[in-house]
Amino acid sequence: MEKTIDILCVGEVLIDFIGHEVNTSINRTKDYHRFLGGSPTNVAVNASRLGLKSALIATCGQDGLGEYIVRKLKENNVITTQVNKLEGVPTSIILVSKSSGTPDFIPYREADYQIAQSQITDELLGSAKIFHTTCFALSKNPARTTILESAKKAKELGLQTSIDINFSERIWSDREEAKNVLKDYLATNPLVKLSEDDCYRLFAESKTEDFIFEYFHGLGAATVCLTKGKDGVVLSNTDFGMFYQKALPVEDIKDTTGAGDAFWTGFLYAQLEQKNLEESITIAQKLAVLKLQNVGRLPENINFRDYLNIE
């Protein structure tokens, strides 16, 4: 089957209400600005901005926020045929503090996890190159079962699976359950992205890099990318070993929300361009820097291939 979709993103679509004041707690934030959000949603939009064909499989409410979501996705040329709008179930939202570090948030989840198996057809899977999801998306059924079954089928069809392990106990209170579900997904040998914060939340304590890489390799993932904020990025691959890159300098950080999604979009983009792992990390970091310097989505009127130095 012809591969007409570069990245098939499956998971949470929601509205981020990001605080207007910088480095202020949610308790003291007075005003919020509305943005299209959800980690796989961000990846789908970013990928489209990079010139890739991306599709989003997700669910929102049949309401004003749901209409806003679909409109913004279409404006960004994301394929929305599998975005379901449910009657009587409100669109999920998250209140987020604007921060130069890790932002605080409060989730109000309703429609986002109502992802049905019927939304992911064999034909759709067969037309894609990468199947991407998140820990957030796996935290509740029916989305969890849908995604796990589809990921197994994707692997059988030759797709590269991918996951952002954006674990938070506020989203998924049962850590042991989360680890068991991740074990199922990692059996598909996905490209894995996680941050030091994600690891701390998942294991409820600090872990060494050796532990982290050994743990996730042991579950079946050959490539594990650990982001460490200002301390750079470490990637471990079972065939090629370990790579470290220091963080790129960032002037005037405006908003950290979505920076990890921009990073991972850059990495997946580089992999589709058949770049090696070190080049992929560099491209990923460049895209993350661009996002840190902008609130909301990536800026317009920029030639991304030139910016990322893609030949």
Structure description:
This protein is an alpha/beta fold and 311 residues long. The chain has helices at residues 39-49, 64-75, 122-126, 143-156, 175-186, 196-203, 209-218, 259-272, 277-292, 304-307; strands at 5-10, 14-22, 32-37, 54-61, 83-86, 93-98, 105-108, 128-134, 160-164, 191-195, 223-227, 233-237, 241-245. The two termini are 28 Å apart. The mean pLDDT is 93.
Short note summarizing the structure:
With 311 residues, the protein is α/β, with parallel strands linked by helices. It has helices at residues 39-49, 64-75, 122-126, 143-156, 175-186, 196-203, 209-218, 259-272, 277-292, 304-307; strands at 5-10, 14-22, 32-37, 54-61, 83-86, 93-98, 105-108, 128-134, 160-164, 191-195, 223-227, 233-237, 241-245.
